[in-house]
# Entry
Amino acid sequence: MTQQICTVKKQDLRIRNGSETIFGVLSIPEGSGPFPAVQIGHGYNGSFLDWEQECRYFAENGIAAFAYDFCGGSVHSRSTGKTSAMSVFSEKSDALAVFQALSSLESIDASKLFLMGGSQGGFATALAAEEIGSKAAGMILIYPALCIPDDWRRKYPAGSEIPEVFDFWGMQLGSCYAEAARKIDVFRSIGTFQKPVLLFHGTEDAIVPFTYSQQAAGLYPDARLVTLPGKDTVSPLTGQGLPCSRRCGSCRRSCKHSMYRSCLQGTVAIFFAVSLCLSC
# Structure
């Protein structure tokens, strides 16, 4: 990433995906472009706003960033769709639609378009990457919730006991969510993406065990796993605790972890520099 700080412009985008509309905000450096870019998917019951600081960091350093709301992915979502119709597969579909739409923008260099997601959004992004393949320049996964299928198989071992509608972590879900999750064999569904992959995960993460990212890193041909000590998940760009929307969507943590900030930003900068060089 360049050391010169770019002026950042913001633009609301709405992207059609079948009968639904995905809302997001594109943060883009001033200038004619086309620019390298990254699309960012939020966690369970999260929002595009969860990644506002990360988008600014990218755009200030010459990389356009588009953070979006999954359809039905949150009680705060500005995209269409009911939470009761949302599943990991619907979020994968949204990620694919976003990638296709961004690739068509004149301001975006489609050959240098990266994927990024956190928690459930990281899982959906990883699934989408298998289909996008070499068209994406690389991928960043932040505590990807690869545990979701195992969690729901444990919760509903027979499958027949899944309610038609139920509340979970501040959101009303439909049976399609649990049914879809139970069917996924995670480590047979990801891992063939050939471009560089960067994973961040806390070693004591109480929601998504660290071992899932360890196993995922071993599957991808070109992957690096950055471990963050402790229970709190730290943004690899801002050095701050990420919002707790991964748990309940009801509040945002603002605790600062300045000790991580410079080294994590450096890691991301190197990842982009190397990946962009390889895509030339």
User: Anything to note?
Assistant: The two ends are 15 Å apart (CA to CA). Residues 118 and 142 are 5 Å apart (CA to CA). The first strand starts at residue 8 and ends at 17.
